[in-house]
């Protein structure tokens, strides 16, 4: 199928309109930029912005999928999906400790990271692989390579992505506990 000059012009216009729309809807916040303190939830008042946990993914391409339903409406998503090529580097979104490396039917290969104060759990799912040497109990710094994007578990093999969730928990709650909060506003804040 050949696309003529008019077809290419239409594609270019559509892309430019999408970029313009997104630039009006999303403010890009660099990972190292100063920011206003804003509570992660009513349970935590010491939140900081999180690093987008897939290397090279800008805030402008993130989509808030937190409230979407899954399993034909049987359960809430309670996370965001960050679309990326299989094998893209997954980074620690914040400082913490690797609490659990786990395989589940839904999440596939996963990482559970707990914040230094024990009150936040960062969940990374559908991973293709772990970073070499990654192990439970390991301290990680924001931006450390921890895994690679994949489509393990119940993810569509043709749409690799990182399923990323944040849970607010009590320090002694188990690695799979806590209450889900929307991570999307912590990456890209509205103006």
TrEMBL record:
InterPro entries in the cross-refs: Cell_wall_metabolism_enzyme (IPR050570), Dup_hybrid_motif (IPR011055), M23ase_b-sheet_dom (IPR016047)
Pfam families linked: Peptidase_M23
Biological process annotations from GO: proteolysis
Cofactor: Zn(2+)
Keyword Hydrolase appears in the UniProt entry: yes
Repeat in keyword set: no
UniProt-listed CDD domains: M23_peptidase
Molecular function terms from GO: metal ion binding; metalloendopeptidase activity
Domain of life according to the entry: Bacteria
Alphabetic keyword roster: Hydrolase, Metal-binding, Metalloprotease, Protease, Zinc
Domain M23ase beta-sheet core, first and last residues per copy: 76-182
Protein name: Peptidase M23
Biological source species: Sphingobium baderi
């Amino acid at each position: 199928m050949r696309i003529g000059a008019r077809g290419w012009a239409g594609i270019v216009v559509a892309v430019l309109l999408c970029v313009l729309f997104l630039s009006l809807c999303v403010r890009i916040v660099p990972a190292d930029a100063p920011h206003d303190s804003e509570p992660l939830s009513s349970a935590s008042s010491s939140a900081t912005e999180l690093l987008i946990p897939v290397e090279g993914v800008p805030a402008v391409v993130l989509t808030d999928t937190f409230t979407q339903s899954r399993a034909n409406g049987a359960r809430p998503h309670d996370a965001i999906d960050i679309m990326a090529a299989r094998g893209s580097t997954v980074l620690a979104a914040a400082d913490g400790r690797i609490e659990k490396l786990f395989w589940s039917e839904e999440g596939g290969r996963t990482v559970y990271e707990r914040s230094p104060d024990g009150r936040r759990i960062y969940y990374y799912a559908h991973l293709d692989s772990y970073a070499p040497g990654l192990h439970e109990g390991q301290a990680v710094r924001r931006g450390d390579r921890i895994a690679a994007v994949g489509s393990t578990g119940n993810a569509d093999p043709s749409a690799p992505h990182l399923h990323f969730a944040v849970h607010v928990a009590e320090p002694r709650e188990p690695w799979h506990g806590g209450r889900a909060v929307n991570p999307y506003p912590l990456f890209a804040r509205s103006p």
